[in-house]
């Protein structure tokens, strides 16, 4: 069996490597020549534990090969980004582009799997785009079980930092445009998934993925709202949550400086876009979480105002602890905004970034070590609970004004 993975990003590349490690022939298709060359040289451009070792292995055995030109295969797996527009509408252009790339090489008996997180109805759209591009083939929306091409949706659900474990151990929801589509897709996932594979329709699978991330978003919003309420009522929110969570049926998540990453801050909008009148709570959760960085900013500015020469040390700029990903990071947003507002000298400590982005230095941010930051700063803002910060001696903070958005104290 030959599998073509379209999109060699955070999901596509690990998936390609894991399938190749099971002995299948895998072709990685990507529009970025640099990515293709890097992989073919046995290297990677994504920070994810152990990914380098497995990619090097499967490239050296020839099981994984990257290319910018689509080639015939038995299975096509699409793992491209599904961002949203400024107006919070889903942008499906990468999926459409993927359809245009694979359509010319599609052949009778092929299976197309959409892995990208997508609004409800996208798998049907994908099948319709393919049908328009290949009128000589039949598709499940017309031919059902008898179609020439099978199309399924199997949303990824791996957690960055644990991608290689979770790819194998997580249960998978597999939605087909027909029963045959789902069963054929399951046969592929069984090659590398140890978790259970559960079959359903494509629409339900799409909604399941959006629901998972919205569930988390709503629960984080609850925690963030509690943190603001507790500030006002002069209660330590971390102690409060610890106590409330002693109840056997209560499990409150952690407040923070806001919600980042390219999944939880995006996916709930796909539900809101489909059902704007009905998705009231889901929309409110998004708005609550998006407002949190501004609340934290105001707190930092108020603390800085107490000093003649404010020196603010910001601990962490990634979107969550112990990773190097700064995309959609509320901590990064806070730090940039602090520099723009010119409230004082801003020091940034970020142990996980090997290279400091040039724009940030140009924006006036000074990157330094934790020790240097402690020595100079009068205000300390904990924005990410990296291991280095969790393990540091907290008595050093005693003489400072501390805004701890992650509860590491
Ligand atoms: N966060 C909090 N409080 C918490 C938990 C998280 O403020 O109690 C914040 C984090 O700091 C971060 C953001 O939420 O800024 C998201 O982090 P995350 O660890 O919750 O999730 P992601 O975005 O890394 O990955 C999520 C996962 N989804 C769920 O846990 C339901 C992952 O399984 C999905 O595969 C991934 O989205 C995705 O690709 O959709």
Automatic annotation (TrEMBL):
Origin species: Motilimonas cestriensis
Keyword annotations from UniProtKB, A to Z: NAD, Oxidoreductase
The family this protein is said to belong to: Belongs to the UDP-glucose/GDP-mannose dehydrogenase family.
InterPro entries, alphabetized: 6-PGluconate_DH-like_C_sf (IPR008927), NAD(P)-bd_dom_sf (IPR036291), UDP-Glc/GDP-Man (IPR017476), UDP-Glc/GDP-Man_DH_C (IPR014027), UDP-Glc/GDP-Man_DH_C_sf (IPR036220), UDP-Glc/GDP-Man_DH_dimer (IPR014026), UDP-Glc/GDP-Man_DH_N (IPR001732), UDP_ManNAc/GlcNAc_DH (IPR028359)
Name the UniProt record assigns to this protein: UDP-N-acetyl-D-mannosamine dehydrogenase
Origin: domain of life: Bacteria
Alphabetized NCBIfam families for the sequence: NDP-sugDHase, PRK11064.1
UDP-glucose/GDP-mannose dehydrogenase C-terminal domain residues: 313-408
Enzyme Commission numbers on file: 1.1.1.336
Record-linked Pfam families: UDPG_MGDP_dh, UDPG_MGDP_dh_C, UDPG_MGDP_dh_N
Top EC class for this record: oxidoreductase
GO MF, any single term: UDP-N-acetyl-D-mannosamine dehydrogenase activity
């Amino acid at each position: 069996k030959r599998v073509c993975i379209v999109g060699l990003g955070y999901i596509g590349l690990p998936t390609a490597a894991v399938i190749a490690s099971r002995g299948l022939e895998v072709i990685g298709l990507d529009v970025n020549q640099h990515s293709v060359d890097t992989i073919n040289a046995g290297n990677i451009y994504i920070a994810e534990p152990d990914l380098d070792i497995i990619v090097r292995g499967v490239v050296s055995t020839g099981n994984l090969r990257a290319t910018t030109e689509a080639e015939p295969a038995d299975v096509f797996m699409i793992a491209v980004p599904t961002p949203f527009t400024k107006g919070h509408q889903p942008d499906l252009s990468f999926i459409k582009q993927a359809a245009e790339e694979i359509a010319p090489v599609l052949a009778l008996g092929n299976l197309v799997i959409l892995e990208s997180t997508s609004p409800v109805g996208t798998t049907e759209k994908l099948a319709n785009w393919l049908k328009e591009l290949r009128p000589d083939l039949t598709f499940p929306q017309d031919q059902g079980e008898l179609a020439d091409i099978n199309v399924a949706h199997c949303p990824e659900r791996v957690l960055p930092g644990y991608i290689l474990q979770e790819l194998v151990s997580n249960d998978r929801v597999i939605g087909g445009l027909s029963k045959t589509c789902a069963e054929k897709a399951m046969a592929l996932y069984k090659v590398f998934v140890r978790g259970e594979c559960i079959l359903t329709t494509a629409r339900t699978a799409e909604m399941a993925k959006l629901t998972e991330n919205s569930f988390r978003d709503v629960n984080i919003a609850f925690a963030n709202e509690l943190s603001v309420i507790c500030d006002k009522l002069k209660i330590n929110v971390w102690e409060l949550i610890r106590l409330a969570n002693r109840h056997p049926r209560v499990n409150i998540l952690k407040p923070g400086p806001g919600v980042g990453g390219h999944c939880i801050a995006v996916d709930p909008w796909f539900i809101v876009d489909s059902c704007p009148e009905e998705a009231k709570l889901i929309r409110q959760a998004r708005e609550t979480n998006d407002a949190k960085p501004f609340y934290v900013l105001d707190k930092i500015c108020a603390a800085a105002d107490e000093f003649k020469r404010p020196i603010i040390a910001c601990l962490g700029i990634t979107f969550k602890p112990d990773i190097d990903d700064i995309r959609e990071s509320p901590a990064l947003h806070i730090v940039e905004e602090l520099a723009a507002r010119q409230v004082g000298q801003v020091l940034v400590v970020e142990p996980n970034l090997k290279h400091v982005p040039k724009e940030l230095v140009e924006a006036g941010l000074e990157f330094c070590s934790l020790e240097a930051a402690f020595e100079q700063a009068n205000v300390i803002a904990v924005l990410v609970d990296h291991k280095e910060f969790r393990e540091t001696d907290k008595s050093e903070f005693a003489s400072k004004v501390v805004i701890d958005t992650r509860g590491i104290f």
